[in-house]
Amino acid sequence: MDRDEALERLRSARVGRIATVTSDERPHVVPFVFALDQGSGEPRAYWAVDRKPKRSEHLRRLRNIRTNPAVEFVVDGYDEDWRSLWWVRASGAGRVVDADDERADALALLRSKYPQYGPEPPEGPVVAIDIERISGWSAAEG
Q: Strand locations in the chain, DSSP E?
């Protein structure tokens, strides 16, 4: 799968799985929703702590990113016809967004992708993932 196709699959994916690194260097993986931005040239993904029920306000993935910014996430397509399988993985550095203008832009991207955010945009932290590497695979290639 070439980079353009991988980026398009990232952009259109409704949900992914994000992995961060805990303080004891263990992977921590959770599902997440995100929006992809390429306005600045290099791709960047944004996600926000939203109003969905959570066990705690102090999310482990946020603590992990503050301690170690290494992040990877994957999106995939599964089908019982395994000739249709594919996945895309993106890795880079995560950071909590501090700038008001970047936060507003990120929330606008998220609202445009997820109508659920329209009436009640996320009030929690917004995280940017500055993507450094993208790879993908598709069964249709082989």
A: 16-21, 27-32, 35-37, 44-48, 70-77, 86-96, 126-138
**What would the pLDDT profile of 61-93 be if each residue is shown by its tens digit?**
999 999 999 999 999 999 999 999 999 999 999
Domain parsing of the chain, residue ranges: 3-141
Q: CB-hemisphere CA count at 13 Å for 82?
A: 1
Residue 26 φ/ψ, nearest 5 degrees? -105, 150
What is the chain's Cα-based Rg? 15
Q: How many CB atoms lie within 10 A of CB 38?
A: 12
Give the strand pairing for 86-96 and 126-138.
antiparallel
Regarding the domain delimited by 3-141, which CATH topology (the fold level of the hierarchy) does it fall under?
Pnp Oxidase; Chain A (2.30.110)
Q: Across residues 15-31, what is the average pLDDT?
A: 96
Question: Is residue 21 pLDDT above 80, yes or no?
Answer: yes
More confidently predicted of 55 and 103: 103
Instruction: Give the CA diameter of the chain.
Output: 46
Which residues, at least 6 apart from 114, have a Cβ–Cβ distance to it below 8 Å? 33, 35
